[in-house]
Design goal:
Chain lengths: 436, 459
């Protein structure tokens, strides 16, 4: 029953002074109202005649707005007057065009269209909640409402990472073209891969003259070089406990995803093959670089639902997976944190196997709080102890870094906002040196 | 418009909320004004109406607006003996020899056990009750029931009821403000009324006059219309006047002449032949001292004895039956509201919260552990090692420089005392927290002095 039934009964109470027998009046009026409520309930449109379906966007970039439309079809022979609540998880930022309080009317055989605008506040999969339909009677004194009727159509909106480091892409691509030799007019050309033979012109490096080829021809020929193509790049995202640490405003994982996306976009343009793993204690996501045109889209889709987990990362698993899948020499970029405990006990034992086969780069983010503790002048006793602890953490980090360097690993350790361009620069440098 | 149960949304739409609020205001403001007007009227009326239980209400010695001093003056002017009594028993005794008039302006204050005795006065006496309630009427056994009650006292002719008035005093007084509470005969009874039921006379052995309005007797109204003539006519005449001026609710009667059995009919229980016996009851007026406990026990027995009578719980009688029925129905309506609100429009949706770890959590935790363990030695060691690691490259010294050379170079660079610098860089372990803090500050200052602005990051 609704507030109208209560109001009816309350209004009826005002007539009680006029009744000869007031208590009889109470019984009569209560019975009458309950009868009306029962009648209204019986006349309400049945819920089993309703079917709900959804159409609309499946993905949206973080910060954008998606629209998912709910279609409520009334297959019964009665007019449906209903309040509909289409619930989403709070972080989906759902704003229904028809507020749940409004009573909408659907003729028999008609379909109601209920668009919901979603402005998600977080990356990942944002599922729809429970659909609730409250079918009111013609007098709106009573309603039918039952959990699971009609069946909630499942829908999940995948919120893609924002990819803020996109703004670095044009600059990195320009540098890539320089390395590629497209814009180089002089010099030996960058790269180590033999490209073609052409006639010598004045200004070419005499060291690149191919004497044997020149002997066969009447002309002097020079070799041209180009950077290696079809190299392999493997991005490994550590989603373990160290990735949950909030650096600045976002978790380390989000920074790492951003950097991985920039690296992938750059490598895909450079003609390299990109694979991606995300793992903590188990493998969370795998993307292998076939089908290059849609690679970035597939990658974004794969990393979008990744969330940090409070578990210790199993580097044994990661190394095994990389070694099993990548037979050829590749560039393995491991996005993790330079933490003595996690890397020293997890990664260092398996690193020799990995580094023997592949070129390994470890990309990590600084914690600005740590730096702040060491440079701030101590004002209290807590600051003195905190400075000591921070220096010790930094010393441990340096020890880990030198241990990694002994295995020939390149370590990129930068503040969070510089991680993506720095990793891209490292990749371009290695590519220009032909060390892939 | 219903207000459904809605989970908290991150943002509520501001636009659709505005029109209903304005519409609600359009409805609420006139309704609120009306309610305010009604409440103000009710409060003013309640303040204006005299309260019979007030001290000084219709008292012959009270000169206030609701007092009766002017009436007493007028009666004395007519030669009537006015005797003021503040105790029911004393008043009954004062009526004793010969005919008298007993004036009870506030019958509510008379104890229920003594109500029956009021109508049992010496022959030829008259009892005047002002605005008695149903309880008082039943208690005295009068064949009269209260009828309708007016909002304010009305002025009418004595014969306004359509039948001639049986009281010559009223006829003589003419128009008077006597209609406030109307009275009617109980079913089968024969009583005659004046002023359209505002004044009723019961011609028993003791003539009982019931008047529903206090206006004719009150100081502020006695000069209006025929009020003075009516009041002096009712209370005056050849009889003596005993004015029962109770200061508050009367205590239960005590003494040998009284038995707590008020259920008996009027005029048969308390023979005034008991009067002499009762006379020594108040005479030995040590009552209040030792009568406290007895009083209470009497009260209890009274309540038990009254169990079968119509006023077992006075609250039931205080309101008409429809009021209780109305309360019941409103409670049922409230139950419906509860049932309506209890059904929510779908369950709340849980948010899968991400795990968050604050930055530098382990470092700060280790700092707290250092402090709790008072690990000043290791902390100082770490700080000194870090300071040396920063200083040596800046001074272009190899890492294995002897401590004395380092101190000398740093002192030369900063211009400080070499011994002080040596103490700072390679001194003894601090033994107190203050020493550690001083050490940390000293190393920080040293580092800032050696730090060259062009170097960038001081680490």
């Amino acid at each position: 029953m609704t507030w109208r039934a209560a109001l009816l009964l309350g209004a009826g109470a005002a007539t009680l002074p006029a009744w000869p027998a007031p208590y009889l009046g109470v019984a009569v009026m209560t019975g009458l109202v309950l009868l009306l409520v029962a009648l209204d309930w019986a006349l309400a449109a049945p819920l089993h005649g309703l079917t709900a379906t959804r159409t609309g966007d499946r993905t949206v970039r973080l910060g954008g707005t998606a629209t998912v439309t709910l279609h409520l079809a009334n297959a019964s022979d009665r007019v449906l007057r209903a309040q509909v609540r289409d619930a989403w998880v709070p972080s989906a930022g759902a704003e229904p065009d028809v507020p749940p309080g409004r009573v909408l009317t659907v003729e028999p055989g008609g379909v109601a269209t209920l668009p919901v605008r979603l402005t998600p506040a977080r990356r990942g999969d944002r599922p729809a909640g429970v659909l609730t339909v409250r079918s009111l009677g013609p007098l709106r004194l009573a309603f039918r409402q039952r959990a699971g009727r009609p069946t909630t159509p499942p829908w999940t909106l995948r919120v893609l990472p924002r990819f803020d480091s996109r703004r670095h892409l044009p600059e990195k691509l320009a540098r890539l073209r320089v390395i590629d030799g497209v814009q180089v007019t002089r010099g030996r050309g960058q790269g180590t891969e033999f490209d073609t033979l052409r006639e010598y012109v004045v200004g070419d490096d005499v060291r690149s003259i191919d004497w044997r080829a020149s002997a066969r021809h009447a002309d002097v020929l020079v070799r041209t070089w180009r950077p290696e193509r079809d190299r392999r790049l493997v991005c490994v995202l550590d989603t373990g406990r160290t990735s949950a640490v909030r650096v600045g405003d976002e978790p380390r994982l989000d920074t790492a995803i951003d950097a991985a996306l920039l690296l992938t976009a750059l490598a895909a343009r450079a003609g390299d093959r990109v694979d991606l793993f995300a793992a903590d204690a188990a493998l969370r996501a795998t993307v292998t670089g076939s089908g290059r045109p849609a690679l970035l889209a597939r990658l974004v889709d794969a990393v979008a639902p990744l969330q940090p987990a409070l578990v210790e990362t199993d580097f044994e698993l990661i190394a095994g997976e990389v070694l099993r899948r990548e037979r050829r020499r590749s560039l393995v970029v491991l996005f993790t944190a330079l933490e003595a405990g996690a890397l020293g006990e997890g990664l260092l034992p398996v690193l020799p196997r990995l580094a023997a086969r592949h070129r390994v780069v470890i990309a990590a983010t600084h914690d600005p709080v740590l730096t702040g503790l060491t440079v701030a002048p101590p004002t209290g006793l807590d600051d003195a102890y905190a400075a000591a602890a921070a220096w010790r953490a930094l010393a441990e980090r340096d020890r880990v870094r030198s241990a990694l360097s002994r295995h020939g690993v390149t370590v990129v350790d930068t503040p969070a906002d510089r991680l993506a361009p720095t990793v891209a620069d490292t990749y371009l440098r290695l590519k220009s040196l032909g060390q892939l | 418009m219903t207000v459904p149960l809605d989970p908290p949304r991150p943002e509520t739409p501001p636009r659709p909320a505005a029109p209903p609020r304005r519409r609600r205001h359009r409805l609420l403001i006139p309704l609120g004004l009306a309610v305010l007007l009604i409440v103000a009227t009710l409060v003013c009326h309640a303040v204006d109406q005299p309260d019979p239980t007030d001290r000084g209400f219709l008292s012959p010695v009270a000169t206030g607006a609701h007092g009766g001093s002017r009436l007493a003056e007028a009666l004395r002017g007519q030669g009537v003996t006015v005797r003021r009594e503040t105790d029911t028993l004393q008043a009954l005794l004062a009526t004793e020899p010969g005919p008298a008039t007993l004036f009870v302006p506030a019958p509510e204050l008379v104890h229920p056990a003594t109500l029956g005795a009021l109508t049992d006065l010496p022959p030829g006496s008259r009892l005047v009750l002002v605005d008695p309630s149903r309880r008082v009427l039943v208690g005295t056994g009068l064949p009269v029931v209260p009828g309708g009650r007016r909002w304010a006292t009305r002025v009418t002719d004595p014969d306004a009821g359509g039948r001639p008035c049986p009281l010559p005093e009223a006829t003589r007084a003419g128009r008077a403000a006597a209609v406030h509470q109307r009275y009617a005969a109980r079913a089968g009874g024969t009583v005659r009324g004046c002023y359209a039921g505002g004044l009723v006379r019961v011609p028993w052995r003791t003539e009982v006059v019931v008047i529903g309005a206090s206006d004719p007797f009150r100081n502020d109204r006695i000069d209006e219309w025929g009020n003075r003539a009516l009041a002096t006519g009712l209370l005056g005449g050849p009889r003596r006047l005993v004015w029962l001026d109770l200061p508050g609710p009367a205590p239960a009667p005590t003494g040998p002449g009284w038995s707590p059995a008020p259920g008996e009919g009027p005029g048969d229980g308390y023979g005034h032949g008991d009067g002499p016996g009762g006379g020594d009851g108040p005479g030995g007026g040590d009552g209040p001292g030792d009568g406290g406990a007895r009083d209470r026990s009497d009260q209890g027995s009274d309540d038990r004895a009254d169990g079968g009578s119509p006023w077992d719980n006075p609250l039931w009688d205080a309101f008409p039956a429809w009021f209780w029925a109305l309360l019941l129905q409103l409670a049922l309506a409230g139950l419906l509201v509860v049932l309506w609100r209890a059904r929510r429009l779908g369950p709340p949706v849980p948010e899968p919260l991400p795990v968050t770890v604050r930055s530098a959590e382990t470092v700060l935790g280790r700092a707290r552990l250092y402090r709790r363990a008072r690990a000043r030695g290791p902390a100082a060691e770490t700080l000194r090692a870090a300071a040396l690691a920063r200083l040596l490259p800046r001074l272009s010294l190899p890492p294995d420089t002897p401590p004395a050379d380092v101190a000398a170079r740093v002192a030369a660079h900063t211009g400080r005392d070499p011994e002080q610098v040596a103490e700072l860089l390679h001194g003894a372990e601090p033994t107190t927290d203050q020493e550690l803090l001083a050490l940390a500050r000293g190393l920080d200052a040293l580092n800032r002095t050696v730090f060259h602005p062009s170097e960038g990051d001081p680490r």
